[in-house]
Specification:
With about 425 residues, the protein is an alpha+beta fold. It has a domain of about 160 residues: Sandwich (Immunoglobulin-like), CATH 2.60.40. It is about 20% helix and about 35% strand. It has eleven helices and 21 strands. It starts with a helix and ends in an 11-residue tail after the last helix.
Length: about 425
């Protein structure tokens, strides 16, 4: 329960650290129920009234708040409530009263070679940790690795339920937790399940043998040019669950998110509207993952971007690939304006690795609300070596942007 109590301490400290003036003022802005659950405070009065929120934390857009799960079990009169109770899902634990978390469910069978790539978007430090497994990083064996803001770590590679260098069973099957080891972050939602099953279990695989949360199949080839069609859209996305005190249930919360949405062809790209993209993504509202462009080493990309949002300008700035200044995603000519014509970027995937790709037109606001993605460039050896390949993105979002202001509008950052 240590993580949970740390989370409660943060809320208590945030309340008790107000100045005398703030304590005795009469704020005219009301904190929403969702904001209050995440530590937001109503500050000031009159023209100075505002809601103060710290950054929220998610994995691949989604949070699974332990406090909401605790309130649910408490309402069901489960006593005492252990940390294990809060993190068990009913899919693999028949006795659990809670669903699996909304954060990415990673799957593998015992002995499969797994890579977990980790990327950090936001202003805070995170610490990736997976239970029951170790990997080799040079001469060191690790099970935890810190990430600074904007850092990428793609060294976590091991055999599921086994060792770093051997497929012989070591930890075995089970629901192994992965999370940020900054304890308030895990309490507020930065945790998920790495589900290791017996070697003959293939539940959840698609016809190509992939699980839904794995990175997409590779595109291109060394020396080949490919066209990629992407729109920037603002659509409803399921981001967390909250405890509803009136019904004593956990309810899915949707918020307007800004996303890069890849489209299959030029025709769909030209005809895309906010409504058509929203309809396309509606069945995936609870499972949509940040866009990952998976490429074979040496592929040349022509990336076509349209902005079908109504408000903010958008660009696409890549890391780690070869391009010139005209394709940087930071100059005025690189910006896709709402309702404007497409912008085309060209670059070559000449360096293997995991690379950020994100907005640079209004980056604080747009990245905070979801306009980030990733490039994964693989060597032929890596393509054949790995059985399962995942990307986890630690995302710090501003609660005002993600959840909306108390009057229902969205704050416009610059």
């Amino acid at each position: 329960m240590k993580c949970f109590f740390c989370f409660l301490c943060i809320l208590i400290c945030a309340c008790t650290n107000a100045t005398d003036d703030e304590t005795h003022a009469s704020p005219t802005v009301t904190v929403t129920k969702e904001q209050a659950q995440l530590g937001c405070l109503s500050m000031g009065s009159g023209d100075e009234a505002h809601v103060m929120c710290n950054h929220g934390h998610s994995l691949n857009f989604r949070s699974e708040n332990l406090y909401a799960r605790w309130m649910y079990l408490n309402a069901k009169e489960v006593h005492p409530i252990s940390e294990a109770d809060l993190m068990m899902g009913s899919e693999s634990h028949a006795s659990s009263m809670l669903p699996d978390p909304m954060t990415p469910l990673l799957r593998a069978s015992v002995g499969e070679r797994v890579k977990i790539r980790v990327m950090s978007y936001g202003p805070e430090m995170h610490d990736f940790h997976v239970h029951g497994h170790v990997w080799n990083d040079g001469n060191r064996a690790l099970d935890t690795h810190p990430l600074m803001p904007a850092e990428v770590y793609d060294g976590a590679e091991f055999y599921a339920g086994a060792g770093a260098s051997s497929a012989t069973s070591r930890a075995g099957p089970g629901d192994w937790m992965y999370h940020c080891h900054v304890e308030p972050h895990i309490a507020s939602g930065m945790w998920g399940i790495f589900r290791v099953t017996a070697s003959d279990d293939s539940i959840g695989e698609d016809p190509n043998g992939r699980y839904p949360t794995e990175i997409p199949p590779l595109l291109g080839a060394d020396g080949q040019t490919i066209d990629v069609w992407v729109v920037a859209a603002e659509v409803p996305l399921a981001v967390t669950r909250e405890f509803d005190v009136t019904t004593s249930t956990l309810q899915t919360v949707e918020r307007m998110a800004r996303l890069y949405v890849p489209l299959p062809d030029e025709t769909t790209f030209r005809q895309a509207t906010a409504h058509s993209v929203q309809q396309m993504l509606r069945p995936q509202a609870e499972t949509w993952m940040p866009w990952v462009l998976s490429l074979r080493l040496g592929t040349h990309v022509r990336l076509h971007l349209r902005n079908i949002m109504q408000e903010a300008p958008v660009s696409l700035h890549p890391h780690g690939v070869r391009y010139d200044i005209n394709n940087d995603g930071t100059t005025p000519d690189d910006v896709a304006w709402p309702g404007g014509s497409e912008v085309v970027y060209e670059w070559t995937a000449d360096t293997a690795g995991t690379w950020p790709m994100h907005d640079h037109a209004r980056s604080i606001e747009n990245i905070g609300r979801g306009l980030f993605s990733a490039i994964v460039v693989k060597t032929p050896d890596e393509e054949t070596r790995l059985d399962r390949d995942y990307l986890i993105i630690f995302h710090d979002f501003d609660m005002n942007w993600m959840m909306g202001m108390p009057d229902g509008s969205m704050m416009q950052g610059h």
